What we know:
Layout: H1 7-18, E1 23-28, E2 34-36, E3 44-46, H2 48-56, E4 62-67, E5 73-75, H3 78-93, H4 97-106, H5 109-119, H6 121-128, H7 133-148, E6 150-151, E7 154-155, E8 160-166, H8 168-171, H9 182-196, H10 198-201, E9 206-210, H11 219-222, E10 227-232, H12 237-250, E11 258-259, H13 263-269, H14 275-288, E12 291-292, H15 294-305
Parallel strand pairs: 1-9, 1-10, 4-8, 8-9, 11-12
Antiparallel strand pairs: 2-3, 4-5, 6-7
Amino acid sequence: MNAPEYSFLKRIGGIINSGESRAVFLRGEVNDLFFVPNSDTGGEYLPIVDFLTAHWGGLRGKLLVVYELNGPIRFVHSEDKDKMAEAWLQWRSGHDSTALAIKKMLSSSRDGFELEGVGTDFEATLRRAQDKPSVALEILRQMCICSRAVHNGKPVLKEDLIVLVEGADMILPQGEIARLSDADRHRVAICRDWFSDPGFMGGDDAVLLIAESESFVNRRVLTLPQILSVSVPAPDERVRHHCIEWFKKYGKSGSSLSHWGTVEEFSKLTAGLSMHALMQLLIASSHQNKTIEPMSVIRKVEAHVK
């Protein structure tokens, strides 16, 4: 049972690795589930952000940052946060943590308190972003500026940033700029400055904006020539076939799953279903110990399409 391959993942990788663009808009079936292999449990189906972090979180030389609406700015690995904090300190203060510690010891008590504030600035900055999308976007933009900074002839951050922004349609809503709220206009301005900055476009960091449809995200951002759009397609027959086989072997109560026809015939009949909808069908049938008949699938497809 070979794991499905996702063409959109290769497309994004090609854009970032080639430097074709540093800003990508990911659209389409972004609210679905995607398979990540695992030798211990056979793998699992995950939401798009978890899927991307599972694939890119271990890449050498890459530092993955995630921002989800109403959540904090988070780092996939705790050591990545430490690296960013050290880079931020050097960028802001002109000192690394060792030099700053020595300076604190040699400074007056008043100066020591001021230097202590510099040392904890990154943590305080991240806390300010909680539940404040405008602040979060500006911090992420500045992190990319920090990533390009040089201290004593060396980059303050050796790794390149990959920033994932989920819910771009909620953060950058569509609408005429004059009709948007002040906060929405501010976020549009931040992103336009961010993605059109020659320093960012000529650097090695990358940003992914994630939303279901282009029509939901502000056109002032998406029409920037620097942004490329990549579509996440609906699951094809090969992907659905894998999901059915995986569920029968590893899914909850999957061994009791019974369906009409062969796996090949059944997977063809499920055309039009998302992974979420297909999984619901499999789980319900397995739990009730009912055989999935063609009419059950057809009704599920019609309901999902509606």
